[in-house]
Write a structure and sequence with these properties.
Distance between the termini: 8 Å
Order of helices and strands: HEHEHEHEHEHEHEHEH
Strand content: 15-25%
Strand order of the largest sheet: 7-6-5-4-3-2-1-8
Number of strands: 8
Structural class: alpha/beta
Shape: globular
Largest sheet: 8 strands, parallel
């Protein structure tokens, strides 16, 4: 199948999953994961109408940024080191991986210099995996209180990278817990914090993620296979 056909299949699967979600009327944003993909492949993605591209690595984003056709909106979806913020501050629309005070301070400083805040998602390691970045559940609220006072940061929601299971039903409780946390924070109405986006689910498990309340998914392998 071509990239365009794969994207059409993903969109169809998302629409089916959305019927079972807690908010079936809410659209789901698809982020094309660009890690290891060539500019030529990414231009095919854009030609198929998929305009949001998510890169894991700052250096790869820098290498591809000018080689990809106009019309792309870039997200950083991988771990972001504080010393790399300066390279992407004027290039990305959303940082998915805000999860430390040091990164928050650097983003805040850089974005204030640019004169507008950076939209961010707070990364939550709800399964407490040692191999993954992200805040533990009990750390999320104190962190949100901290960054809510930073004018260079606009928190728009949460992001999660779930454990990999061959049987995707095994990951369902983790997505469900993330959605519950998302709802709990939304109800608190923290000034300066918006809970609009719940980014979870990748190629292997995005349908389950959407069924459990994700309204943003990050898909790479199944788009380019």
């Amino acid at each position: 199948m071509s990239i365009a056909e794969n994207i059409a299949e993903i969109r169809k699967n998302v629409e089916e999953a959305r019927k079972k979600s807690p908010n079936p009327e809410q659209p789901v944003t698809i982020v094309a994961v660009t890690k290891t993909r060539t500019p030529e492949q990414l231009n095919e993605v854009l030609a198929a109408g998929q305009t949001i591209l998510g890169e894991n690595r700052v250096q790869e984003l820098m290498d591809k940024y000018d080689a990809v056709n106009p019309g792309a909106t870039w997200h950083i979806i991988g771990h972001l080191q504080s010393n790399k913020v300066k390279y992407i501050a004027d290039k990305v629309a959303l940082v998915h991986s805000l999860e430390s005070e040091s990164l928050a301070k650097e983003l805040n400083q850089r974005m204030q210099a640019l004169g507008h805040p950076m939209d961010c998602l707070v990364q939550v390691n709800i399964a407490d995996e040692e191999s993954k970045f992200g805040l533990a559940r009990e750390e999320v609220l104190p962190f949100l209180e901290l960054v809510s006072k930073m004018p260079g940061i606009h928190v728009r929601g949460l992001m999660n990278i779930a454990p990999f299971f061959e049987d995707t039903e095994q990951v369902r409780p983790i997505f469900r817990e993330m959605y519950q946390l998302f709802q709990e924070i939304k109800e608190k109405q923290i000034p300066g914090i918006d809970m609009e986006v719940l980014s979870m689910g990748m190629s292997h498990d995005y349908q389950v993620a959407v069924e459990e309340g994700a309204n943003m998914i990050r898909v790479g392998r199944s788009m380019f296979a």
